[in-house]
Amino acid sequence: MQSIPVDMARLGVTMCVVPPEPRVNSETGEVRKDREGNPVWVVGVSVRQLEKRRADVLEIAVSGEPSGITEGSRVAVVDLVATVWEIDGRRGVSYRASAVRPESAAPASGGPAGRGKAASGGDA
Asked: Domain 2-105 carries which CATH code?
């Protein structure tokens, strides 16, 4: 699988549209774990390319439960990576970040908080 770093500075406002929830294995019902054994959580984040009208929702996986994020709150996504995948004739793009934080908790360096997501719809 190919992992592609996403330039968050090319995107506009990022907002939580689906609050954090544990990623669950559909077959066993167990919470999925990352390589270090931490539970994986998913946050639905709305993103929009600057100067574009269309917004997309990305399901972003993170290790550990994100705190302080509620539906409708602006968020900052840290180290977003898009991964192109194909399984049994199906294909898509999954998104993973090292953190999803409330916008006010974003580091001051690295540009405006809340900027920079991946374009969804297969364009990363």
From this structure: 2.40.50.140
Regions of the chain where pLDDT drops below 50: 106, 108-124
> pLDDT digits over 101-124, tens only?
999 754 544 444 433 434 344 444
Distance, in Å, from the CA atom of 20 to the CA atom of 59, rounded to the nearest integer, reads: 10
- Dist CA 111 CA 109 (whole Å): 6
The total number of residues written for the chain in this structure = 124
Taking the domains of the chain in order of start, what are their residue ranges?
2-105
Six-digit token string for 18: 């689906």
- Distance (Å, whole) CA 19 – CA 41: 10
